[in-house]
Amino acid sequence: xLDSNIELYGPYSKPLSNCAGVxxxxxxxxxxxxxxxxxxxxxxxxxxxxxxxxxxxRLACQTNVGNPDSTGLxxxxxxxxxxxxxxxxxxxxxxxxxxxxx
Length: 102
Description:
InterPro entries: 2Fe-2S_ferredoxin-like_sf, 2Fe-2S_ferredoxin-type, Adrenodoxin-like, Beta-grasp_dom_sf. The protein is mainly beta. Helix content is 6%, strand content 13%.
């Protein structure tokens, strides 16, 4: 998200409203809609902070996407606790744009 200039903290982007990536505030919580196989496992910090949340919720600041030779699609929902609808993402989306691949 940071490499793509996507606002990591959403409405919590004020300087003193987040932990700057340490994983203690949980303001960067996201839902992984598709592509969880491209992510690192939950960290110990995430396991503690998200123990009562669905397994597909992650802290974006603690989540690494892929490695240099991997390709695929990761779809996230920012602010999942405010989500108003469910996403219907096809399982096998073609990846045409190298900018969107990991």
